[in-house]
Amino acid sequence: MAKIIGGIGTSHVPTIGVAYDKGKQEDPAWKPMFDGYKPIADWLAKEKPDAMVMFYNDHCSSFFFDFYPTFALGISDAFPIADEGAGLRNLPPVKGNIELQAHIAESLVNDEFDLTVFHDKPLDHGCLSPLPLLWPHQPDWPGAIVPIEVNVLQFPLPTARRCYRLGQALRRAIESYPEDLKVVVVGTGGLSHQVHGERVGFNNTDWDHEFLELLEKNPEKLTELKHIDFVERGGAESVEQIMWLAMRGALGDSIKQTHLNYYLATTTAMTAVLYENA
C-alpha cells in the first residue's frame, strides 16, 4: 500500500518565486531563506517520494469569489502554470497521477468530505513559489502532485479542526491505496503576516514559534482556536496556518521535527519545516 513518509510546512510568499526566477539565491537578503530549503530538498532527493500532496489556497487564479470552494482536489495528468500578471514562469507543467488523485477524491467523499473536483486548472504561487525549492524541475518534475485547495480567503472558512480532520482522512485515503507509493504531505502558507489594513506589516515571532511547537507536539490544542484567534495572534493572512494543520493531521501522532528554518526579513515570516516519523 502507499505510505506517508513525512510532512513539510512551507510559506508560499509570491516574492519567493520572483527571487528564484531572478537568480537571487546568493543575494544576502535572500540567501538565508533559500539555504533553509536545501536540507529539505536533500531529504526529498534521498527519499525519492512518488507523490506530494499539497494543501494550498488559490489566489484567484483558478477560483474566484463568485465560486470559491471550501475544499477542491485536482485530478489531471498535468496542471498548467498560472500567469499571475508578470508572465508565465519558466517551469514545466506540474505532473499529476490520475489514479492516485481519483482514489483520494473518492475516499475523502466516502469519509464525508464534500469535495469540489477540478481538472486542468492552472496552479499559482500557492503551490509554485515553494515547489522549485523542494524538487528539481529540469527537464521535468520527479514526481506527481495532488493539489488540494483550501478556502482561506472568503468567509465562511473551514475551521482549524475541520482541516485537521481532513488531514486525518487523507492519511486513511493514502494508506488504502493499493500501489506501493511513497507520499509526502505539504502544508503551505503563513506564518504570521498581514498585507493590508491598519496592521499591515504585522508579525508575531513568539506566536510563530509557539504554533510550531504545538503543531509538532500538541496539534489538538491548535484545533480549538477560532479564525479570529489566528488573526489576532498572527495577522489577517496567518489564518493560512489551518492548512498546516491539514498536513499535520495526515502525519499521525508520533513525529519529530528534523529541520526548521525561520526567516523574517519581509512582511511574512518565511518558514520551512520538515517532519518525519518518530
UniProtKB/TrEMBL annotation:
It comes from the Bacteria. Residues 8-273 form the Extradiol ring-cleavage dioxygenase class III enzyme subunit B domain. SUPFAM superfamilies: LigB-like. Keywords: Dioxygenase, Oxidoreductase. GO terms for molecular function: ferrous iron binding; oxidoreductase activity, acting on single donors with incorporation of molecular oxygen, incorporation of two atoms of oxygen. It holds the Pfam family LigB. This is Protocatechuate 3,4-dioxygenase.
